[in-house]
Write a structure and sequence with these properties.
By secondary structure, the protein is an all-alpha fold. The chain is built from 11 helices and no strands. It has one domain. Helix 1 packs across helix 7 and helix 7 runs antiparallel to helix 8.
Length: about 300
């Protein structure tokens, strides 16, 4: 029953179909955003929004749908590999930073006093952060043990207890699909209602547009990470695996905290979170290579 439900929402066929649908929507939304900007700039429609002043800001919209697909990929990889699942978290926060660059690029003042302008400084922080994250994520994936690429290999190496753990991960992944859909609809409707009904709160809502859904999303991921840590004891009680999974939880918490900060503190927290997760994986692999935990 678990496998049947899982295959209906998280199979390879569904993944490929979802990819085509979301990419089609992203292209259509990009063109629609460009048309709205054209209409707004020619005073045909009157909507006060910084996202309707510069054509570059239109890239923000398709990136939002790409992020939706990355969320789906995160759930898709959850039953297969914890390391890949964490890697997808890092990809999501990187795309959020890059999307923020496209949103704020229209606010650039381009003056000789670059380092005295708040908007110019934020653009600098975000571009450097996205580059740093891209590099760290590359090395993160490079250091994922090769055996995690193969489910069958993993099953043979870990023994029968891994079956229970994988089944539990499939249940969690399947439950995450409707939970995240409901969360997305709820957060978007609350933000839209706030923006339309109250000008003051609407301005604040626009300022925090990058936090919509993803602030709550990473809260759910923290809960999932803790469940994975506890359930991992079913098949392994090795010290280095416990530390790895605990470190991944800390990394997710740091990303979650970053949504409540601004400026360079926000960027530092994001880089620190991803770098911490990478270092945890690196040390875990050293334990695996030397089998330190099994030596008396």
């Amino acid at each position: 029953m678990i496998n049947r439900v899982f295959d209906k929402v998280l199979s390879l066929k569904v993944k490929e179909r979802s990819e085509r649908v979301i990419l089609s929507i992203a292209i259509i939304s990009y063109l629609a955003h460009l048309i709205l900007i054209l209409l707004a700039n020619n005073d045909i429609i009157h909507i006060e929004s910084k996202l309707l002043t510069n054509p570059i800001a239109a890239i923000y919209t398709p990136f939002s749908f790409i992020l939706v697909y990355e969320v789906y990929l995160l759930i898709f990889f959850l039953p297969k590999s914890i390391s890949f699942y964490i890697g997808k978290q890092y990809e999501i926060i990187t795309l959020i930073v890059i999307r923020r660059v496209f949103k704020d690029i229209s606010n650039l003042e381009l003056t000789s006093k670059w380092f005295q302008s708040k908007s110019d400084l934020q653009f600098t922080y975000d571009t450097v952060t996205s580059l740093a994250l891209f590099i760290i994520i590359y090395f993160f994936y490079q250091n994922i043990p090769k055996r995690e690429y193969s489910d069958k290999e993993s099953l043979q190496e870990q023994g029968s207890n891994i079956h229970t753990f994988i089944k539990l991960k499939k249940i969690i992944a399947t439950l995450l699909v409707p939970i995240l859909i409901i969360l997305a609809i709820y957060t978007l409707s609350v933000w839209a209602n706030t923006t339309v009904s109250d000008y003051g709160n609407g301005t604040l809502a626009f300022k925090n547009i990058n936090n919509i859904f993803f602030d709550e999303f990473f809260t759910i991921l923290i809960i999932v990470d803790v469940l994975l840590l506890l359930s991992s004891f079913f098949y392994s009680d090795k010290f280095h695996k416990i530390i790895r999974n605990s470190g991944f939880i800390i990394s997710t918490i740091l990303i979650k905290i970053s949504f409540s900060t601004e400026g360079i503190v926000n960027n530092a927290l994001i880089i620190g979170a991803v770098l911490f997760g990478f270092l945890i994986l690196l040390i875990h692999n050293k334990f695996e290579d030397n089998d330190i935990s099994s030596k008396g």
